[in-house]
Amino acid sequence: MFEAINQNVCRYAAFSSEELATFNQLLAHKSIAKKQFLLHEGDVCRFEAYIVKGCIKSYFIDSNGFEVILTFGIEDWWVSDIDSFCTQQPSRMFIETIEDSELLLLTHQTKEQLLTKIPKFERVFRLMVQRHLASYQERLFADHAKTAQERYEYFLAKYPYISQRIPQHLIAAYLGISPEFLSKIRKRMFTNRSK
């Protein structure tokens, strides 16, 4: 069960088998069915979760009542509301499973224990946060500099393994367009490829 997460953290630092065993002992396993919430808006996020299996979305509801998807997460990714988790303040987002999922979780307390026992994990989480922020920044640039079709093409190119697992209406919510407009884009792309 821990092989994949151990490989994940070893990308950022070298750990002994004893250190990895300590890390693994602090993780809590959770199975959760699809369409279930890990986090509701207004609740404090009490976990950082590594996705062993499944697909998860994080999102908020805008002032018009529309779902705005911030991220998708699949196997070998981490999911959390980092702001709420770090500050222990109420979250402004929802985290919900799209598929049946298997997770390994760190709580605020177990993460602090881990960082105290094995300080090298500070580097691991710092580098993960940096990668996450770079990804958000890249998406922000794309949202402002690209057309809807260019954003969709970019999403397909960057996440081909995700796009085949997620309903089109969720991809539209991620891109900030209506499902109908995404359908038109897809039709136009298919027509252009057929010529």
What features would you describe in this structure?
The chain folds into two domains: 3-144, Sandwich (Jelly Rolls); 146-195. 50% of the residues lie in helices and 20% in strands. It is built from nine helices and eight strands. It has helices at 3-10, 17-25, 82-87, 108-117, 120-145, 148-158, 160-163, 168-175, 179-194, and strands at residues 28-32, 37-39, 48-53, 56-61, 67-73, 78-79, 94-97, 101-106. β4 and β5 (67-73) form a beta hairpin. α8 packs across α9. The mean pLDDT is 94.
Give the number of DSSP strands: 8
The CATH architecture of the largest domain is Sandwich
CATH superfamily of the largest domain: Jelly Rolls
Give the helix/strand class: alpha+beta
If you consult CATH, what is the topology of the largest domain? Jelly Rolls
List keywords for this structure.
single chain, 195 residues, alpha+beta, Jelly Rolls, four-stranded antiparallel β-sheet, 9 helices, 20% strand
